[in-house]
Write a structure and sequence with these properties.
- The structure is a single chain.
- By secondary structure, this protein is mainly α.
- α2 crosses α3, α3 crosses α4 and α6 packs across α9.
- It is globular, with a radius of gyration of 18 Å.
- It starts with 11 loop residues before the first helix and ends with a helix.
């Protein structure tokens, strides 16, 4: 992991402070960063943003800047709130862009209202809780398996299958089962939290 993973608006000093806030041990900080990255990319993708990497970078830029300005007790929760704000801002920007092109009726169909945004936020919270309930192996499998798209996905799945000493088909079945378990957990969580 390198400093350039965070957007260009963050100085090396701020990035180092962010990593230290995640964990004083550099190795564990890198793991925490990667785990956070996977969760937020999933969050942004589930919210309908294919540019999830850009939104993640923006989130981490803001977090690194704010960390140099104020004392933060729970960095994970703080970053999650920033990500939610970044998502709302991106949704608002998309809606403005569509309405400027004279398609305001279509914009209402494309972008969720406040109630839908709250539902997505609840789904994100449930997803995080359900991910925590998976054992480490299942969590790693599902986060890595669904990490990439297109050509990167194929290469990643082949590499994962080789690592596990199995075929890509068997790996696909394993990942599908864990995904189903995760989806069932999220559905249950959403119905209980209503």
């Amino acid at each position: 992991m390198s400093r350039d993973r965070v957007g260009s608006g963050v100085t090396a000093e701020r990035f180092d402070r962010l990593m230290a806030a995640l964990d004083p041990d550099r190795g564990r900080a890198a793991q925490a960063y990667e785990s956070l990255r996977q969760r937020l990319l999933t969050f942004f993708r589930l919210s309908g943003f294919p540019e999830a990497h850009d939104l993640f970078d923006k989130t981490m830029d803001i977090a690194a800047r704010r960390l140099s300005e104020i004392q933060i007790d729970n960095l994970g929760a703080f970053i999650t709130v920033i990500a939610q704000n970044v998502r709302f801002e991106a949704m608002r920007d998309r809606k403005r862009m569509v309405s400027l092109t004279g398609q305001s009726e279509r914009a209402e169909e494309l972008f969720p209202d406040r109630q839908e945004a709250e539902r997505q936020e609840q789904a994100f919270d449930c997803l995080n809780r359900c991910l925590e309930r998976l054992d480490v192996g299942q969590r790693s499998l599902v986060l890595e398996y669904y990490k990439y798209a297109k050509a990167e996905k194929i290469a990643s799945h082949q590499k994962m299958a080789a690592t596990f000493g199995t075929t890509p088909g068997t790996l696909r079945v394993r990942a599908y089962r864990v995904k189903q378990k995760l989806e069932d957990c999220v559905r249950h969580c959403m119905s209980v939290d209503k």
